[in-house]
Design a protein that fits this description.
Elements lengths: L5 E6 L14 E2 L2 E2 H10 L6 E6 L2 H7 L5 E4 L11 H11 L6 E4 L11 H10 L6 E8 L4 E4 L2 E4 L13 E12 L14 E5 L13 H11 L1 H4 L8
Parallel strand pairs: 1-4, 1-6, 4-5, 7-11
Antiparallel strand pairs: 2-3, 6-10, 7-10, 8-9
């Protein structure tokens, strides 16, 4: 890959309604936002890392790293602000427009050490792909309620492995080809490339109980995620 073409953005606004100050909440002694920074720093393909925040505590955390911090404007710092609009704001403020933008959410802190690199190579080698998203396969026995009664979507005897797979966004990685998404004000474009990750290793911090799952998953797969605890500064 050519240099000066890949920018990683980590959004980390102040506050949270469901989990107070979750972006700076510590896990294994490290704030969540810092775990995503460490993931980005481990990928040598990334040319620039930007944290978009309105939180002084986040700024204090990231000042130890050789990365950039953009002040998030007030109209993008509220609960209903779209992440895509935050990405557009960052791109508009860069000195030059990158070819790829890597979105790393602080609330999805567990990424295998080579996940970002794999994703970048995948989208680089597929010029028709407008974006890339990490997803996991999910098979579940579902039904519907009609006229007050539950009706199964599948025959009772169906095996779980025979249920059609759904693919759920893992939250850990999004990559945008800027010309096909940001510049067209199209969040994902019309050809979204999936990269499969393991459902059992995917954790999104939306509620307080998710920290329990985070502890469990990290303990079970510590060999994959221990790099996040390395001292990088």
């Amino acid at each position: 890959m050519n240099k000066n073409k890949i920018v990683a953005i980590i959004p980390a606004r102040k506050g949270s309604q469901r989990v107070k100050n979750k972006n700076i909440r510590k896990f294994q002694g490290v704030p969540l936002v810092e775990l995503s920074i460490r993931s980005a720093l481990k990928c040598s393909l990334i040319d620039q890392i930007v944290v978009s925040t309105d939180d002084q505590m986040v700024k204090d955390i990231i000042c130890r790293y050789d990365i950039e911090c953009f002040d998030r404007p007030p109209h993008l710092a509220h609960e209903t602000a779209r992440t895509f609009d935050v990405l557009v704001d960052v791109i508009d403020r860069l000195e030059s427009t990158p070819e790829f933008l890597v979105l790393l959410q602080a609330t999805s802190p567990l990424r295998e050490i080579d996940l970002i690199q794999k994703g970048l190579y995948m989208i680089e080698s597929n010029p028709e792909a407008s974006s890339l998203i990490a997803v996991y396969e999910h098979r579940i026995f579902t039904g519907q309620i009609r006229k007050g009664y539950w009706l199964s979507d599948y025959p009772e005897e169906i095996r779980s492995q025979d249920i059609p797979a759904k693919y759920v966004p893992a939250g850990s990685l999004y990559i945008y080809r800027v010309s096909d998404t940001i510049e067209k004000c199209d969040p994902f474009g019309n050809k979204v490339l999936p990269i499969l990750v393991d459902e059992t290793q995917s954790v999104n911090i939306d509620y307080e109980d998710d920290f329990i799952k985070l502890e469990y998953v990290f303990a079970k797969y510590r060999n994959k995620f221990s790099y996040l605890l390395d001292n990088l500064v």
